[in-house]
Amino acid sequence: MLELIKSGGWVMLPLLLCSVIALAITAERFWALRKSRVCPDNLISSIRKWVRDGELDDMRVRALAATSLQGRLLAAGLANRRHGRDIMKESIEDMGRQIVLELERYLNSLGTIASAAPLLGLLGTVIGMIKVFATVSSQGVGDAGQLAGGISEALVTTATGMTIAIPALIFYRYFRGKVDRLVAYMEEEAQEMLEIMSGDREFSANEEEGLEI
């Protein structure tokens, strides 16, 4: 493996760096974008219970904000519950923009790696072919070893760039889709909370009670 890396020339160094960064981002985003971590299932039911029982206060709002990103979103609205639905909605939208940025953290870097890795591989290809033609022009076609070395460098960097770019692009698209799904879910939950707080949604007699936070 070391010999293969050496045969690729100096372009292999940024390619290997890209591979390490892409792997780290992928692992971190798999951990950070878990639905149980971003959007726990019990938050709306807890808010519904607090409102029904008259237990909603600032302490519970602060506890809600500490649970998750969705908790922060809902708490932003509840913190302005005394100012009416429009102010609550504006607060949720402001917090939502911050949360989207947090959900998309590092994804631009992953997308950049997916785009840059093939270009780096192509650069290695060009450098390798330049060496091949330089060898041919100075020594003719008789030295097969040097010709093979230049061609090997070209092929190794191209293959490495594509090997890094393909999974990076797949995971980039996957995480983008997951962020979109999480944002849509949080929007639905926020809308339901606004309906609960404004009295537009009634409680059913057999409604399941929320879990305490």
> What is the averaged pLDDT score?
85
Uncertain stretches: 203-213
Element string (H = helix, E = strand): HHHHHHHHH
The amount of beta strand, in percent, is: under 5%
Number of helices: 9
Helix and strand composition category: mainly alpha
> Rg, please?
27 Å
- Multimeric status of the protein: single chain
Task: Give the helix level as a range of percent.
Answer: over 70%
Total individual domains: 1
Shape: rod-shaped
Extended strand count = 0
Q: What is the CA–CA distance across the termini?
A: 52 Å
Main sheet makeup: none
What would your notes on this structure say?
The protein is mainly alpha-helical. The chain has one domain (2-198). It is built from nine helices and no strands. The longest helix is centred in the C-terminal third of the chain and has 55 residues, at 144-198.
